[in-house]
Amino acid sequence: MYRTLRAAKFLVTGPILLAILLVIDLSTSGHWFKWAALGIGIAWIFSLFRVMRAVVLMGGLLALIAFLRKKKQDPAIHYPAQVEADLEPRALERRGGGQW
């Protein structure tokens, strides 16, 4: 989890670092900026994929929890009263009706 938080932080600090390096490159006469930009860009893409993977995993986990909670509270199949009575003889008695 700590790696994912660092990756999310780098998604913000990477472009800021790149801007600082651009200012330094413009103030000097070197041509080293393109290599630093390439390295930071590759690291930024890997960080983006790491954060996206964590978001997808968390979304799937939350969807599974919501599905299980809904399934526990509200069954997916609702039986009519007669079919329910055939399945369980005391079903209508609990509702206060029926011959049972």
Largest sheet: none
Quickly give the structural class: mainly alpha
**Gyration radius, rounded:** 29 Å
**Which stretches of 5+ consecutive residues score pLDDT under 50?**
none
Oligomer: single chain
Indicate the overall shape: rod-shaped
Please work out how many helical segments DSSP would assign: 4
Between the first and last Cα atoms, what is the distance in angstroms? Answer: 57 Å
* Overall number of strands: 0
Portion in beta strands? under 5%
Count of distinct structural domains: 1
Overall pLDDT level: 81
The sequence of SSEs as H and E is HHHH
Q: Helical percent range? A: over 70%
Fold and architecture overview:
The chain is an all-alpha fold. The protein has one domain. The protein is built from four helices and no strands. Helix 1 runs antiparallel to helix 2. The two termini are 57 Å apart. The mean pLDDT is 81.
How is this structure best summarized?
The chain is an all-alpha fold and about 100 residues long. It has one domain (about 1-95). The chain is built from four helices and no strands.
Features of this protein?
single chain, 100 residues, mainly alpha, 4 helices, 79% helix
SSE map:
Layout: H1 2-27, H2 33-73, H3 81-87, H4 91-95
